[in-house]
Fold this sequence. Notes:
By secondary structure, this protein is mostly helical.
Amino acid sequence: MPISRGRKQNSVDPGFSKKANPFDSDSDSEIPKSKLKPARASSGPPDFENQSLQELESYAVNKAKETTDKVNDCLKIAEVIKEDATRTLVTLHQQGEQIHRTHQQAADIDHDLSRSEKLLNSLGGLFSKPWKPKKTREIKGPEIMIDDSLKKKVNHKEQREKLGLTSGQQSNPCKYAEPSGAMETVQVEKAKQDDTLSDLSNVLGELKDMALDMGTEIEKQNKALDAMHDDVEELNYRVKGANRRGRKLLGK
């Protein structure tokens, strides 16, 4: 028997229509407002108007000491950077000496190769054509004078560090009077900050000079590498020609 349309509509459970959403939780609405925790207020500057004189003095002393510690940390970082820069200067100097020695060895190879070319020319016999090695350019070799200014500067810095004359390691550190009150403590901390900032300025000046020395040394080494590259290319060209001459003589 067919079911009427009206009966089919009445068979639907109308329970969901009385609630806004069956998945919504009513637990939030059941919590009393008195138990809800307020959001944490953002930390702002202290209220100086409601503080006592002792609290203000204590705040000023703490801030002065905190600033002194931060300035000392900056000086320590600068000293570490200076030590790394000193090692870099030493490495650059050793690298420059290595480039000079390598280029000198290339010049020595040129002298040995010239004698070998003369021998290959004389091994042809009476009826062979004279052989003359082809040279595109002359081997110049390294510069005779080596600039030791960088090495002297590095040695000078090392001697000053051994004697305790560097800005970070003073042989006669400043002695400050023992403060008796909060304001005197702040003044002593300011004096410490001024002395540390002076040392920091000296270290930064040394770092600037060391950076300039590094740039000059790197520029010199780049020119030395270019000159050595040209000499090595010429030697390779002449060695290939000597090898062809030797294979030709052995083929006869």
